[in-house]
Structure prediction request, 667 residues.
Amino acid sequence: MSRRWRIEVEGAPLGPSGRRGGDLFGMAHRQGRTDPWWDMPLHDHRSRAPSGGSHGTLHRRDAIRLLAVLLAVIALVLTSSALNWVTEASAADEAPTPRKAVVVSGPVHSLTDRYRDYARAIANEAAAQGMDVIRIFHPNATKARVKKHANGADLFVYVGHGNGWPSPYGPFQETTKNGLGLDYDDPDKRASYNVLYKGADWLRANIELAPNAVVILSHLSYASGNASSGMAIPTRAVAVQRIDNFANGFLAIGARVVWALGWQPGADVVKALHREDATMDAVFMTRYRSGVNPLNGWIGHDPGYEASVRVPGATIHIDPDPQYGYLRGITGDLDFTTTEWRDATARPPDLEPPVISGVSASQAPVTLATTGSSEPVFTPNGDGLSDSVAISHRLSEGAFVEMAVKKDGNLVRRTSTWALAGPGTLTWDGRRDDGDTAGEGLFKVILTPTDRAGNQGEPAEVKVRLLNSMRNPTANPTLFHPADGDDLAATTALKARLTRDATVSLLIRNASGDVVRRGIDEAAMSPGDVRFVWDGTDDTGVMLPEGRYHARIRVTRPQGSYAHEVALRLMPFQLSTNARSVRRGDKISLKVLSAEPLKGKPTVLAKQPGIAEYKVPGWKITRVGASTFKVVLKTRAAGKRGEMKVRVLGTDTADGTQSKVFTLTVR
Prediction:
C-alpha cells in the first residue's frame, strides 16, 4: 500500500532535497512486506529402514511428513488470502483522489503583488475545500509549467493581464489574444513588467482540461466586457463580443463554463462550487454579501442572455453595473450544476424550500397618511420625499426573491433579486415594467422565494398605497423673525405643486401638535402651484410666541389622502451642534444661523451651573456665510453638572436688536 503526499510552494516547489527548484512533485513511501514463504528442504522419501527399525515405522514417518507438507500448503493459501483481503480493504478505505485545481498568477506590472494576493485567496479556498491545488505564480508562471500542470485540471484559474478583442490594439488574431499573460521561460526575462501573451491558439494546441472543468478568469481586462482601467465603458454589443472571444479558447480545451469576474473575489465561486447544489447560472446570480456592487456578486441592474457566436450552443450571461460597466460574465453550459461538477453522489440534493417571513412595508416618517389607514403610503413623484417603499422580510436561507406587484389582480411589476439568509429589504420605486410610474391606488406586493436548487417557497404579501398628486412642499425661509416689526424676515412662503385635481388643506401646528393657523381649509384645487404666505400670527392675527412649528400640507383624492410636513422656526437665531452635551473644560463647536442679516458678528454668552456668565471671545466666532457663523465654545472646568444656557445676541441691518437663549448640558 502506498500514500501520495503533495508539497506546494508558491512560485517554485521544494524538491526532494528541500531546495527551491524543479516542478511540484509527489513523494511516495512504500512500506516493506515479507512474503510468507516456508523453508522446506527436499528429503529422500525412498522406502528404506534404518538399523533397528521396522517397515511400518517407515510408513508412519512418511505419512507424518506428507501431512506436514499438506498443512504447510494450506497455511500458505490461507495467509496469502488474508493478506490480499487486508490489501483490498486498505485500498477501499483510502479517500478518493481529490479534484485538481491549478491557479495561475502572471506578471501585472505594478499590480503584480496585489494580483498574486487575489490568486492566493482563491487557491487557499480551493485547498480548504479539499482540492489538490497547484499554484503557478509569478515569477515562475511560465508556459512550460502551465502546460505540464493544467492538463487534466478540474478547476483552472487565471489572474493577470487580459489581452482581448475588440481592442485598440489590432489586428485580431489569437496567437496572443484571448489567453494568458505569463512569464518568459528564460529567467533573465522574467519581470513584473515583461508579459508573454499566449493566446487561444496556444491553449487549443497545448492544454486539455478534465471533463466538465470550470475556468475562472479573475481581474482580467476584456474577459468580462470592460477594457483596461481608465478606458471607456463599451457598448453592450462590444462587451458581449469581448466575453465571447475570451471564453472560446477555454471552452475549446474542455471547460464546461468560463467565469469572467472583474472585481468579485473568485473564492466566492470556489466555495459555492463545493457547498451549493445549483446550476452555474444560479450561482452566477448570487449575491454573496449585502449591498449591490460588482464586488459582492449579482448586481441585477440590466442583465441579459446572449447566444455565443464563437462556440455555437454556448450561452453568455452578462450582469453590468450601472456605474462601472461590464465586470461580471459567464459563458458556456449555464444549466451545468455544481453537483455534476463535484460528483453526483457528493451531496444529497436540496429538497427543502426556503421560507420567507416577517414581510412588512414601512412608511417614511416624512409622509403622513390618513388617520386609520392600514396600508403604508409612499409618494413616487421625484421630489425626494418617500419616492420608494421598503419591503422588509426574513429568509430561512439565501434565495432568489421574486417581487410581483399587482393592482386589481393585474401584474404591474415583476423583479427577481438574490437575497441573503436572515433579515433583508427590497424596494419598489412605484414604476411599472415599462419604466412609467404606476397610477395612484392600492397595490399588493407578493414575495416568492426560490433557492439555488430550484425549490420554491410559499409566497408572502403586503399591501401598500401609492399616492403622488402633490410634490415638493417647501418653505422659504424656514427660519424667520416677524416679531421685531421690520421687513427683513417678516414672512415665510409655503409652496407645493399639484399634478392632479385634489382637495387641499394647509395647517400650521406648534410643537405640541395644536393647530395654530389654518392657511388653506379643504379647498378644491386644479393642477398647479399651492401657495400660502405666513406672517407668524394665529387665526385671529395675534403674533405667536417664538418656537418650532410645522406646516402640514394635505391632499385628498378618491384613491386616498396624505400629507407632508415642513419644519419652521419662528425665532431670531437657530443654533445647531453635533453634541448637545459636553464635558466641563472641553470645547464644543456651534453653528449659529441668523434669521435676519446682522451688523457684524453676534455676541455669544455662556452660563454654566455654579459659574458666572462669561463671554465667548470674538476671535472664536467666524462668519462662514451671509447669515451663518461658527462659534468655538470652551467650557469652564469648574462649576457643576447640569444645564448650560447659551445666549446669542445681535443687531440686524435695520438696527433692531434680538436675542435667543439655547440650552446645552455639561457633565
